[in-house]
Amino acid sequence: MKKIGILGDIGSGKSFVAKSFGYPVFDADYEVAQIYKKDKKIFKKLNKALPEFFFTFPVEKSQVSKAIITNSVNLKKIVSIIHQEVRKKMKKFIKKNKKKKILILDIPLLLENKINEKKDILIFVDSKKSEILKRVKKRKNFNKRLFDKFKKIQLSLDYKKKKSQFIIKNDFKQKTVKKYVRYILKEILQ
Fold first, then answer.
1. What are the strands, taking DSSP E only, across 19-176?
2. Under CATH, which number does the domain 1-24+100-190 receive?
3. Which of 16, 1, 38 lies closest to 106, judged by CA?
4. Do 123 and 166 touch, CB atoms closer than 8 A?
5. What is the largest CA-CA distance in the chain?
């Protein structure tokens, strides 16, 4: 089984690219949302670490946003609590899909949290900054300060690009992405 890690900027289209491969995708953003909605144990840890922000269950996105905007240290605390659980869910996903040829890891802080393994194939999704900003601003609950805080904890895009075996130039057109995906699959499945 080969694992493909999708890298790129916030709003670059990583999830769209991940789904375009047609193989099982571990979607960390979805898993985090589920943790906030359903995992009381994690809520208790968040409540203990940051009681002034996490006081109702299920955890709401606004609580997370407020904690992060208030203090950058809070983001690190939240990530350290959530990250462990996401890693467990990813291991279950890999075990469940171990017979598949390829698995796709759509994990925003893949390199930052050292989740990938050396033999994993890394793909960088390269998109125009102007397109990214336009797309991100359209998101429900977009918050520029929050966006900037998340950008600060990420490794540089140049570093991610250098670490990647493949680069997909994403123009947000399905036809273009599919062309890159076909080429990459051909290369890695030889």
1. 25-27, 102-106, 121-126, 166-169
2. 3.40.50.300
3. 16
4. yes
5. 54
- pLDDT tens-digit series, residues 19-37: 999 999 999 999 999 999 9
Token code pair at residue 4:
């493909």
Burial tier of 136 (Cβ tally within 10 Å: 0-12, 13-18, 19+)? middle
Q: How far apart are CA 130 and CA 54, in angstroms?
A: 35
Q: Report d(CA 94, CA 186) in Å as an integer.
A: 22
Q: How far is CA 30 from CA 9, 43, 127, in A?
A: 18, 17, 22
Nearest Cα to Cα of residue 28 among 40, 41, 39, 18 = 18
Instruction: Encode pLDDT of 115-142 as tens digits.
Output: 888 899 999 999 998 888 888 888 877 8
Instruction: Please give the share of the chain, as a percent, with pLDDT higher than 90.
Output: 69
